[in-house]
Design brief:
By secondary structure, the chain is α/β, with parallel strands linked by helices. It contains 6 helices and 13 strands.
Amino acid sequence: MLKVITCFKWVIDEADVKVDASSRRLILDRVGYKISLYDRNAIEEAALLQEKHGASIVAVTVAPPTAKQCLKDALSRGADKACFVNDPSLVDLEPTQTAALLAAAIKGQGDFDLILCGEGSSDLYTQQVGPILAEKLGIPCGTYVNKLTVIEGEKRVIAERKLDDCVEIVSIQLPALVTVLPDINTPRIPTLKQVLAAGKKPVDNITLDKLESPSEPGLETTSILGATMERRRLKFGAEAENIRAAVGALLKEGVIT
């Protein structure tokens, strides 16, 4: 049976983020959290492999204990088991720290065939965790994948990589790690039955005393400011002269050609 591990991140729901108009600082006091949108694609791809090949799925995440509710969400989307690396200190980790903890947790899960990750997370979108994790585990890595085919009996996958100016098709020997793009699939909304069943699935709680503490961060975020957009606020009437002026302004700005 194909054994798939899918990694996911519990992130701030961007729909709840407010920006202070004067300072441009983010207001996060009342934000909700969710599984990163890109990681939902990774979990869905694992579920599709489960349906087609009878794969088993382990969902792995690194987060503080307060993020425990993310486990039920991941399990309701098709995972058979969750692995929760948790500690109050595991907040605002940078990619090398996250990848190191994921690698240690995955090694404790025994043999595996395929690791699926989102191309990036919907908060930082560094696109680094997948490749770093593959390097730490000593396995090949395929990135920017928008189609994945498992070749049964040959221990390999065919991955289509969507690059800037072409689509590259590669054969990757298993075990391997693949990072998927959002257009690889459309994540399903869990049914009530799946949500209820998720509460009965096993969860491995792994605390830092069972793993090495994360190393010092190689990156430091000093601040995050909301983007601004300057508008000229020009008004044009409906008369022919005003319409010509409006079209001329758009041509000048290069909005239309």
